[in-house]
Amino acid sequence: MNQPDSFDGLSAFLAISKRMSIRQAALDLGKTPGSVSQALQRLEHRLGVALFHRTTRKMALTEAGTNLLLKVEPAAQVIATGLEDAAQSAKAPSGTLRLIVERLALPHVIEPLLPAFREAWPNLNVDITVSNRHDHFVSEGYDAGILIGSYIEQDMIAVRLSRPFQWAVFGSPAYFKAHGKPAVPSDLVRHECIRFRRPEKGDIYRWEFVENNESVRIDPSGPFTVNDGELMRRLAVQGVGLIYSSTFHTSRELADGTLESALLEYSPGNDGLYLYFSKAVRNQPKLRAFIDMCSRVLAI
Fold first, then answer.
1. What region, left, alpha or beta, does residue 299 occupy, with left being phi > 0 and alpha being psi -120 to 50 degrees?
2. Best CA proximity match to 185, nearest among 264, 291, 112, 295
3. Mean pLDDT throughout 181-207?
4. Long-range CB contacts (within 8 A, 24+) of 121-126
5. 78/132 same-domain check
6. How many whole angstroms separate alpha carbon 5 and alpha carbon 45?
7. Are residues 155 and 277 in the same domain?
8. Closest by alpha carbon to 284, among 113, 144, 165?
9. What's the pLDDT tens digit per position in 47-75?
10. How many CB atoms lie within 10 A of CB 286?
11. Are 245 and 107 in the same domain?
């Protein structure tokens, strides 16, 4: 004996619950009102209970219908997402992947990754905008961005692209020889500091530390204010003053000995470089291909 289909009539039930109209539900499902009505009747007959109160003018869920909707609707959304994911996975990456990338990511991510990505997906184009201003990420139609983790909006999905790094104070060996190294954050009032104006916000970036398990923010003073990270580091190398940056931004200068760190033990924590994107595009084949290549080439 054939077992009844447990899902028979559920799509009709969900569509009617959304519209509270058999006619409107039929339009949503691309079926006739008669077939939708019959599907609902079969479901009610199988369950042995009425799911809707019906009058000539309106419909309303019964208590049994409300309880069924509460249990079935979330499961239906999970099933729909699973079907969408399966359909997306079957499609080859194509079109153009639009990225907005902060300049720091160019030598560490973009330059080592693009040749391999091009070889793997020759029919996929990549459009890269280099900018530290990501406040219009969604409205300007980017598929994904690359940014420091602490700057990314909370509702975005983020994938780490770099090893963890720390924020601290940096200066040249000559500067530290002449003026000494600050031992605690409050020592900075006696030092020349190069201030950084954030291009995306226009404000002066405050230097952040953790001291005695409490957050400490310092508004540095100094004769120079810049809005370019590369210029800021070059000035520090020349011994003009101290800067607040990360071990990632200054990795080249730390390696060649032109900058040294200070107050690392007061760092507010580990940060990183991340690829980020919205939930709406997370299953795009072109984006998935880029993420896979990042994990393969960068080996984080």
1. left
2. 264
3. 90
4. 121/93, 121/286, 121/289, 123/92, 123/93, 123/94, 124/93, 124/94, 124/95, 124/96, 124/97, 124/286, 124/289, 125/95, 125/96, 125/97, 126/96, 126/97, 126/99
5. no
6. 13
7. yes
8. 144
9. 999 999 988 778 899 999 999 999 998 88
10. 21
11. no
**Residue 139 sits in which domain range?**
95-163+273-297
CATH number of domain containing 67: 1.10.10.10
Task: Single out the residue of 108, 200, 197 nearest to residue 152, CA to CA.
Answer: 200
pLDDT-derived band of residue 85, with 50, 70 and 90 as boundaries? low
Collect all residues with Cβ–Cβ distance below 8 Å to 148 and sequence separation of at least 6. Answer: 102, 104, 271, 272, 273, 274
Instruction: Decide the pairing of beta strands 224-226 and 194-196.
Output: parallel
**How far are the Cα atoms of 111, 115, 145, 182, 288 from residue 119, in angstroms, in the given order?**
14, 6, 22, 49, 16
Examine residue 249 and state whether it is found in any structural domain, yes or no.
Answer: yes
Residues 56 and 149 in one domain: no
User: What single DSSP character describes residue 155?
Assistant: T
CATH number of the domain encompassing residue 110: 3.40.190.10
Distances (CA, A) of 66 to 11, 45, 53, 62, 239: 15, 17, 11, 6, 71
| pTM, 2 dp | 0.59
Pairing verdict, β 125-130 and 144-148: unpaired
Report how many domains make up the chain.
Answer: 3
State the pLDDT at residue 114. 94
Chain segment 36-45, per-residue pLDDT in tens? 999 999 999 9
| Number of neighbouring beta carbons within 10 Å of residue 160 | 15
Among 90, 115, 130, the domain-final residue is 90
Does residue 229 sit in the same domain as residue 250?
yes
In the numeric block, the tokens 């909006």 are attached to 153
| The token pair that represents 85 in the structure block | 């994911």
